[in-house]
Structures are given as structure tokens and as C-alpha cells.
Amino acid sequence: xxxxxxxxxxxxxxxxxxxxxxxxxNITSGDTMAxxxxxxxxxxGAVAIIKGDATPIYVDSVKGRFTVSRTNGKETNTMLLQxxxxxxxxxxxxxxxxxxxxxxxxxxxxxS
Length: 112
Fold this sequence. Notes:
By secondary structure, the protein is an all-beta fold. It is 0% helix and 54% strand. The strands form two sheets. Strands 2, 4, 5, 6, 9, 10 and 11 form a seven-stranded mixed beta sheet that branches. A four-stranded antiparallel beta sheet has the order 1-3-8-7, with no helix packed on it. β9 and β10 (101-102) form a beta hairpin.
């Protein structure tokens, strides 16, 4: 399984970013996919999960601000994380995860 994450960057508080993760290799359309993040000095933790049937699950801190979605293709599954109303506390490296594999991480910095 290969995971390619992208879309991070610097954004001002209140701004928006969309992260993308493309999974390929030994995957199926029914795989659960997830976004995790690791804030500076903290452990990695889940942010949003999306099941194979596209049911989303969010941690309380991002509910109403983040939206996870997915598109299942013939050879790849693509997961997006639309992040709105970003706060400085959202600053972290964001990782995608599926079938026991991690993407390389993409840095999101929320700062004025």
C-alpha cells in the first residue's frame, strides 16, 4: 500500500485548506481511511475517519469545521480533508492512514 498526502501549507486563523491523500496498491473500496495529526510535542491522534461506505467520524475538536470525503477509483482511493475556520491549535503534521500504512505527512501551520 502506498499513500501520498499533499495540500498542507501556511494559513491565517479563520482560513481554509484542503488536504488530499491518494492510496494505491493492495487496497479495496471498502477500506476505512483516516486522517491523524501530530501537534508539536504531542502524540499522533485521529482527526477524522471515513469508512468504506463513506460514513464519517470526527473528533469533537473539529466537528463542524472539518469535512472528510472519499472517492474510490479502479486502482486508487482518494481521501480529502476540507478544513475550515482553522485555528492555531490545528497546527500539526497531518498523516493519512489505511490498512496499517501511513502516508508521509503534510504540515499545516495556522498563524498570523
